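Lab manual, section 2.4: Encoding a predicted structure.

Procedure: take the sequence of the chain (205 residues), apply the prediction step described in section 2.3, and record the output as structure tokens. A sample record is shown.
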Amino acid sequence: MIALVVGLLIVGGLAILYQRVDARSRIDEAQQADAIIVLGAQVSRSGRPGTSLSARIDHAIKLYKQGYAPYLIFSGGLGTFPPTEAESMRRVAADAGVPASAMILEDESHSTEQNLAYSKKLMDARGLHSAIIVSDPFHLYRAEIIARDLGIQPYGSGAINSPNSVRPLDRVYYTAREAIALVWYYGTRIVGEPTWVYGILKGKI
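Recorded output:
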């Protein structure tokens, strides 16, 4: 009986988090900020951004050209295929006419927490405090929580054309994954982070 109650509480908690993640994904909070942080995703075998990363960088470039922020911070290290996620984004932005002076590369991170923590160091060095965070819509709720914990004022803006968000089954899967990742994030704030388990469970999202 106790196990059943505990199980129901866990399921209920995850359902609430799922709803919050999904609700947040449907709102674009882009506004004037010091920078635009683009969170990394997979680079394809060709060296070009994968489908999700391509949607993110295209959205970020659009925001930059609309004058929302003077800097683009490309965040993401080396994955399965070179170059780094940050460099792959830089090439696309350069081809789109974004000047080198507006681009800041963070090419060491391999997780959402690292994306934002390492980007925060680059922001601090330049006196930047607020950022539009660009990622897949389902990623924004957790990314904003992490950013606030780090001292960044975040304004999430989702790349709504990402296939992971457009395809219904993918959207459900990744939204559920984010709910679980939130439990993990809160848990590690309390008991610490076993990095080997972290790598297995979360990968590079």
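Check your result against the sample. The mean pLDDT is 89.
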